[in-house]
Amino acid sequence: MTQNTLASCPLCHARGEHVLWQGRRCRIILVDAPDHAGYCRVIWSRHVREMTDLGPAARAYLMRVVFATEQAVRAVTKPEKINLAELGNQVPHLHWHVIPRYVDDASFPDSIWSAPRRAGAKRSADPAELVRHLRRRLRFAE
């Protein structure tokens, strides 16, 4: 990994994030995605590319945080489905997407990055309320 990669990584040098929870090893943020209210990312703190770059205990820990995030998003947003994805094709820094999905969102049942099938229903979630409810459910110790 080059110094340029680390210097330009938007997940290493985040700005303006809605941090819902942060521990020593990872953080959970609310993504600014008005069409997918409640969309979160779980971001590993160290700059690594893949899950297998972590040891077994760190992988298990990260998945516990991902599953806790899924549970909180489900409780707060009441979606039809949750999509979990660990991609990193555009930003090669280990992170998980936790995305609430609804049958009336623009691209359902395809991924949110697919071409829209229809005009999606607008969900007017108050971001401050969403942050407050998710933070309350994401209180856990390292």
Question: How large is the radius of gyration?
Answer: 15 Å
- Please outline the major beta sheet: 5 strands, antiparallel
Order of helices and strands: HEEEHEEH
CATH class: Alpha Beta
What would you say the CATH architecture is? 2-Layer Sandwich
How many discrete structural domains?
1
Q: Would you count the extended β strands for me?
A: 5
Show unreliable segments: none
Strand content: 15-25%
Q: What fold name stands as the CATH topology?
A: HIT family, subunit A
What does this 3D model show about the protein?
This protein is an alpha+beta fold and 142 residues long. It is 27% helix and 19% strand. It contains 3 helices and 5 strands. A hairpin with a 3-residue loop joins strand 1 and strand 2 (26-30). Helix 2 packs across helix 3. The longest helix is centred in the middle third of the chain and has 22 residues, at 56-77. The model has no long low-confidence stretch (mean pLDDT 90).
Topology of this protein?
Blueprint: H1 3-8, E1 18-22, E2 26-30, E3 40-44, H2 56-77, E4 81-85, E5 95-101, H3 127-137
Antiparallel strand pairs: 1-2, 2-3, 3-5, 4-5
Helix pairs in contact: 2-3
Distinctive features:
five-stranded antiparallel β-sheet; 5 strands; 142 residues; HIT family, subunit A; alpha+beta; single chain
Short description:
The chain has 142 residues and is of the alpha+beta class. Helix content is 27%, strand content 19%.
